[in-house]
Amino acid sequence: MAIPDFQGRRALVTGAARGIGRCIVSALLEQGCRVVLTDVDTALLQETANALDPHGERTLALELDVTDASRWAQVVETVTKQWGGLDILVNNAGIMLLGKYLELEPRLDRRQLDINVFGVMNGQRAVLPGMLARGSGHVVNIASAAGQVGVPFAAVYSATKFAVVGLTEAVAYEYRDSGVGFTAVCPSVVETGLIDGAGRPRWPPVAKPEQVAKAVIRAIEGGKELVFIPRVARLSAILPAILPRRVARKVAEFLKMGDMFDEVDSAARDSYRNRTWRS
To answer: Is 218 contained in some domain?
Structure first.
């Protein structure tokens, strides 16, 4: 279901302190929305809110660990009391831990699943009842092109994003007549902390967070269920379906998609690792 007019709409964005999340908040504010910024990094979260909305007139900054369903309930209750509910949910928070499959600790696999999958499910379960009761709203789940084709050395990350795409598609069908829309956004490689210290593909070009934010706005406006950034990233869903597996892999190797996460500059990735690997 499309939301053609953003003016006065109430949105919540997870992982809003930096990167893609911050850009989505900025784009929603430009469209006239009121926005709830949430993140676990409360200091940076408040800095971001102050920078994007200096007078605090159209934003709320609330700490939220997306893996905590009870905290989700508290946040939604707070927003409902202050603003009367939510029209838009953007499940953006996510992490990517790189390494050979057997060399990553199982606790790190669990952490990716908890944030990338259960975090999205917690958000939908917390926000959907209000949207369904009003018969309107839109849920955007930030997935990845890695949710269309498995990416080596990011195997569990790929698994989580496949889950997000499948979850979004299934829930969208279940509630197709409810007035609530659902979108899975599948960026290719985006210039954020997720790829610090990692390689880059030969093609498609690395996207900017602002491109993802603009695509989110277009998806909500148009009621689109599946969006790729850049648009040519749609080939990640098409080529594996029409080409023999060995040919698809040769194409991936030529584009440097097969080994870009193999050789990682550990020092360059330390900051990101320290933020995301904590227990």
So the answer is: yes
